[in-house]
Each structure stands twice: as structure tokens, then as C-alpha cells.
Amino acid sequence: MTCSDTNQASLLERLNALDAISGVKAKYFRLMDTKSWDEWQALFTPDAVMDMAGEATAMRSLGFDIGQTRTPIIPVVIGELVRTLQLWRALFDEGVFTHPIVPPAVPPTSCRLRVSMSAEHSDEQVDRVLDAFERVARMMVAA
User: Fold this and answer.
1) Residue 123: which CATH number?
2) 44 vs 1, 16, 86, CA distance in Å?
3) Which helix (H) or strand (E) element contains residue 77?
4) Does residue 103 sit in the same domain as residue 135?
5) Whole domain around residue 28: which residue ranges?
């Protein structure tokens, strides 16, 4: 059994909501006729989306405050501006690109780094990002 038109429309709504995950549409549309509706629903639950990104749980376990995010765009709350920019630069020097989010976009004590994961990131790339966060965090604590 493949997806009906009604189910496809519902799936399209879910895919549009997950548009931040680059490449996910093309990747899963190629499989549209090969999965049952139940299999499709399982792919796009919030937990399954986090599994695609693979980083949020690990970020929490490293001690980073990422709030209650359940998307592949992970806000890593650092706090003060200077510390946020120091962490951003250290990660950049490690080859990890994040987006610093600073005032006026957030309160001065709630600066953060935005980490954008994608279904296209390999396990090795995710591991490299996590390793860099761990190294940089240790360096920042030691300083």
C-alpha cells in the first residue's frame, strides 16, 4: 500500500514544516511510492527529525543549554556577548560554522550560537562538530 492523495497532502504539510532540513524533500520524495503511510508518519515525528540531525541529545550531554528544541536548528545558549563571540570564533577556527545570535535579536544575557543540522550531514560530520564543541568548551572553561 502506498500513500493516498490525502496522505500525500498531509505529508507535504509536514515536509513544508521541516523545510529547514536541506535536502530532505528530494531524499524522501524519491521514496514516496515505496513506503506505507505508517512508515512515512514514523519518518517525520519530532523524535525522528531529531534522529536525522543527531546532535541535540549529544549537545545536552556535553552540558550545553539548548532549551527544549526539537528541530535540526539548535540554539546553543551561551549567555553574555563576549563569551558567545569567543566560542563562535573558536568553533570557526575548528572548521565548524555556526551563526552567533546577539542583541538586538536576543536579550544581552541570552546570546547563543545557532547550529543548523541537515539530513545531508553524515555521522562523521556530526561527530566532528560534537568533538569541536567539546574541545572548545574545555578550552573556554580552562581560560
Assistant:
1) 3.90.1150.10
2) 19, 11, 36
3) strand 73-79
4) yes
5) 5-44
Rounded distance between C-alpha atoms, residue 136 and residue 133, angstroms: 5
Distances, alpha carbon 12 to alpha carbons 4, 31, 38, 116, in Å: 12, 14, 15, 22
Q: Are 84 and 135 in the same domain?
A: yes
The answer to whether residues 78 and 49 touch, using CB atoms and an 8 Å cutoff, is no
Cis peptide upstream of residue 72 (ω within 30 degrees of 0): no
> Per the structure, how many domains does the chain have?
2
In contact, 96 and 133? CB cutoff 8 Å: yes
pLDDT in tens, the chain (143 residues): 444 556 665 655 555 555 444 444 444 555 555 666 676 666 555 555 545 545 777 888 888 899 887 777 889 999 999 999 999 999 999 999 999 999 999 999 999 999 988 767 777 888 899 899 999 988 877 76
β-partners of residue 117 are none
